[in-house]
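User: Show me an example of a complex going from sequences to structure tokens.

Assistant: Sure. Here are the input components:
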Amino acid sequence: MANIIHRIAIKQPIEKVYQALTSINGLAHWWTTEVQGNTNVGEKIDFSFYKKTGDFMATMVMQVQESVTNACVRWHCVGGPDDWVGTDVTFELSEQDGQTILIFGHRNWREQNEHMAHCSMKWAVFMLSLRAYVETGTGKPSPDDVKIDNWN
Amino acid sequence: MANIIHRIAIKQPIEKVYQALTSINGLAHWWTTEVQGNTNVGEKIDFSFYKKTGDFMATMVMQVQESVTNACVRWHCVGGPDDWVGTDVTFELSEQDGQTILIFGHRNWREQNEHMAHCSMKWAVFMLSLRAYVETGTGKPSPDDVKIDNWN
């Protein structure tokens, strides 16, 4: 199993970061504008991605497995690209030096393929988007996300 | 062993990307301004990092193990933070859709610790810096790199 793990700090209270990870409105401001579902434990959230032209790309379906206020969130991927299904997305929050530290993980990939390398860069730019949203109110969710290669 | 692997595309000829990875001047424009050494196979390159205040942070010493024109570069880390020594940094280049595809790797970490998660985000912003340098002439090498957390 292989993992993408990124560490980033956000200069805002931990409550604001947790809110951005556990509300449909928050999620829509940094990952993709097209979010539907319910963020409670046991429920599912659908994240859909479209090109700027409007062409559909993919829907990632995440089942919320854990959500501990101001501490952690864990999703299990139950729909999306073949190599995403069965993986886990984790957010661990803590406080240090007056900042909120986020350890982001996209874990348990079956193999470290080229698509995983693409997703590693994409998650990094989405982490910058999350930070910008929480710190300034404006992120760069899809379809206005930073494009990093010929795939997206 | 754990690996950081990022995929990015650069809208410039592969020769320009290879040059940015294999000349002291090129490296100084996207990773750190403080680069010394020789980029030939078997030789060593010292990359030093300072805070904006001028305080010294670290020197990473890379031994060039492979350098195949317009195809790949591999460095072995022989000096730097404890968890970097013995790791490998790789750059694999190819062409697709009229773009240069770069698969960047920082491989063979002994454990996937929190510092590796920090470095994963830092390498992502340095890949964006490399792309900006090759595409526009201006990157964001240290000490003007994007800061991503309370460590750097």
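The lines above are the inputs; the final block is the predicted structure for all two components together. Chain B is about 25% helix and 40% strand.
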